[in-house]
């Protein structure tokens, strides 16, 4: 039995052209960055926990409020603006460089990606 579930050849040509163009663009890419949870660092480093603590501390200091209120603002801005930083920029004119410098020193250790 023959199933004709493929597109006719004339309809595939634009797809092939697009894929060839895309392939050329991908081949010329020099650097790839993948942001996959617990891929570069072990879960035991608690990277996101460290970020959360520093973010809450930054907000509390910047707005001169208690940490519990800072945590509420952090989560609310994330929900309302897509990122906490965007909310801080829009609502409090926070300089993004100042905010991001809060996270430059985090305690991390590389995972052993190859197990013996």
Concise structural overview:
The protein is mainly alpha-helical. The chain is built from five helices and no strands. The protein has a domain of 59 residues: DNA polymerase, domain 1 (Orthogonal Bundle), CATH 1.10.150.450.
Structure description:
This protein has 116 residues and is an all-alpha fold. It has a domain at 43-101: DNA polymerase, domain 1 (Orthogonal Bundle). Helices cover 57% and strands 0% of the residues. It contains five helices and no strands. It has helices at 9-27, 47-63, 67-81, 84-92, 96-101. Helix 2 packs across helix 3 (67-81) and helix 3 packs across helix 4 (84-92). The protein is elongated. The termini are far apart. 9% of the residues are buried.
Q: Based on helices, strands and strand pairing, what is the structural class?
A: mainly alpha
**Distinct helical segment count:** 5
Largest sheet: none
Name of the CATH architecture of the domain at 43-101: Orthogonal Bundle
Could you outline the blueprint of secondary structure elements for this entry?
Elements: H1 9-27, H2 47-63, H3 67-81, H4 84-92, H5 96-101
Helix pairs in contact: 2-3, 3-4
Task: Please tag this protein with its features.
single chain, 116 residues, mainly alpha, DNA polymerase, domain 1, 57% helix, 0% strand, elongated, disordered N terminus, disordered C terminus
């Amino acid at each position: 039995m023959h199933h004709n579930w493929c597109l006719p050849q004339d309809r595939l040509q634009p797809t092939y052209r697009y894929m060839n163009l895309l392939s050329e663009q991908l081949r010329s890419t020099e650097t790839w960055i993948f942001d996959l949870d617990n891929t570069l660092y072990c879960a035991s480093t608690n990277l996101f926990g460290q970020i959360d603590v520093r973010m809450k501390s930054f907000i509390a200091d910047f707005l001169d409020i208690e940490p519990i209120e800072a945590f509420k603002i952090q989560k609310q801005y994330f929900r309302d603006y897509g990122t906490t930083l965007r909310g801080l920029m829009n609502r409090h004119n926070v300089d993004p460089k100042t905010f991001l410098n809060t996270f430059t020193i985090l305690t991390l250790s590389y995972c052993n990606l190859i197990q013996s």
